[in-house]
Amino acid sequence: MLGLSVCRRVNPKKESTVEKAKKAEVVEELKGVFAESGSVVVAHYTGLTVKNLSDLRKRAADAGVTFKVAKNRLAMRALQGTPIEGISPLFKGPTGIAFSKDPVAAAKVLTSYAKDNAKLVVLGGSVGASALDAKGVEALATLPSLDELRGKLIGLIQAPATKIAGVLAAPAGQLARVISAYSKKDEAA
After folding, report:
1. Three-state SS at 37
2. Which residue, 50, 115, 146, 173, is most buried by CB atoms nearer than 10 A?
3. CA-based nearest residue to 122, from 44, 181, 55
4. What is the gyration radius of the CA atoms in the chain, in angstroms?
5. Could you give the strand order of the β-sheet that contains 66-70, starting from the edge strand earlier in sequence?
């Protein structure tokens, strides 16, 4: 034997097949995110440190929002054929995606964080099938959240019911007072 080392060659076709499968999996996952989310917000995160991104992700998770860094080409591929395909031009540069089922939560979290840290720049997003620019996302962030709206709606529904119960109870209370007054009058006589 000549002492030649045996080099193991990696099959480039096998690597690319695995890589393509992973990319297809990411695209399918993003399609699901875009289909199921009440809102999607796209932002640039240039200059944010790992600590900043961790803080952003924690704030987002506390509000029921998910923040992910996305590969632009894969995100644009996932957007093809969806109702929010119009936000594809936002995917240039280092982009992150915030999404949630609550239509307002993602906009609130990213807008709030962007006010605290100027390195996060909100580019735009979508609510349902409507594409939004950065100002639209800011306007969306000023709206009450879904839970706040539910609370207000329940309050509005309960208020008339409480008033009706009070009105219905008032005559019965008056009748009881009249009967009590007559009984006291009869006792005195």
Report:
1. coil
2. 146
3. 44
4. 30
5. 66-70, 95-100, 39-44, 121-127, 130-133
Going 77 to 81 to 82 to 85, the CA torsion angle's sign is positive
- Single out the residue of 92, 98, 52 nearest to residue 71, CA to CA: 92
Taking the CB of residue 64, how many other CB atoms lie within 10 A of it? 15
DSSP-derived letter for residue 45 is: -
Backbone angles phi, psi at 84, to 5 degrees: -105, 25
Tell me which residue of 111, 131, 126 sits closest to 38, measured CA to CA: 126
Task: Specify which of 15-19, 31-35, 118-122 reaches the highest per-range mean pLDDT.
Answer: 118-122
Q: Give me the sign of the Cα torsion angle 151, 61, 24, 126.
A: positive
For helices 12-36 and 72-79, the axis angle rounded to 10 degrees is 60
Alpha-carbon distances, residue 92 vs 7, 48, 127 (angstroms) = 40, 17, 20
Neighbours of 5 (CB within 10 A): 5
* Per-state percent for the chain, helix, strand, coil, to nearest 5: 60, 15, 25
For residues 143 and 90, give the distance between their C-alpha atoms in angstroms, rounded to a whole number: 23
What tokens were used for 147?
């839970």
Q: And the tokens for 19? A: 């890589």
Of 59, 143, 39, 25, residue with least CA distance to 99: 39
Distance CA 124, CA 110 (A): 11
